[in-house]
Amino acid sequence: MLYYKSVVINRFFYILAAAIILGCFPVFIVAQTKILPPELPKSLSIGLRGEEVKKLQEFLAQDKEIYPEGLVTGYFGQLTRSAVQRFQCKNNIVCSGDEASTGYGRVGPLTRAKLAELKTALVVAPVTEPEAPSTSAIQPEPTPEVVVPPEPIAPAPAIKTGTGLVADLKNFKIGPVDFLYAGHYPTENRGYLYPGETSNDLANITSSEYSSCEDIAIAGYDGISDICQFTDPAKYKFSTHKEAVRIYDKNASTSTGYQILSCYQKILLFKEGNIYGAIDPEKIDFEGLHYRYWYDESGGSNFSGLCQQSKSATINKMASALESMRSLLENLKKLLK
Questions:
Q1: What pTM was computed for the model?
Q2: How many domains does the chain have?
């Protein structure tokens, strides 16, 4: 009998404790904030920058299929144009052509109307606090709190790099930045770089003067030997690219008496707005200018990562060479025994 009373009393206190806990601690549901489509009073296209472009990027970045890079810079570049094209195609606005012919990649009247339509259709339901259960109601266990996981952090933007070939009197682009190559002299391994359809700035431009490599007063530049050196844009003097700047490839040279001097001016740095990049004129022949390029759309602060990648690759090569040497020595020992 005493054992039975003890069990009943213990169960009563357990039930009372559960009721008190459930009555004092209501369950909250954490809802994820959704960014609504922006209201755009005017059309947006590549090359523009501002708050409206930033709001558009924030909205598009919510869909990783449309804007996988997720960069919110306020500048309408190539990545933003590609995201707009995916948005247009997904919403049956337009799926082919270009900005001029069909508006593909441009936020024009039809795309702005679709954004306004989506904003109207989205209804954000208010989150209300659920009614606390009555202390008289017996609950076996509390309802677990529902928490929406945070959005994954977008990876750091990578440096875009590659190689290209441009013929004489032709425009070429590095990202959104446009240049004109002209004054092609393949026998002297030189040419001239002019500003293209977009404005840009060049780093460390020298004054227009005669040089030992060319008897024409044209501006040159003081370049860098390795792109890994470009770690802080503030260390370089950028000036507006208005006129021709001479470039030499890596084989260009001249002789002064008994001395042979290199005319190669190394890697040329440039910028346009928040985009920083570099051109290395590797070879100038009868085909045109063969060049290597790099550019960063996030402020020019990521080039130092190339140094780390280069060091890691060098270390891996050295380790592989040492392992090969070790294996060779082991085989020699066996042969000498």
A1: 0.47
A2: 2
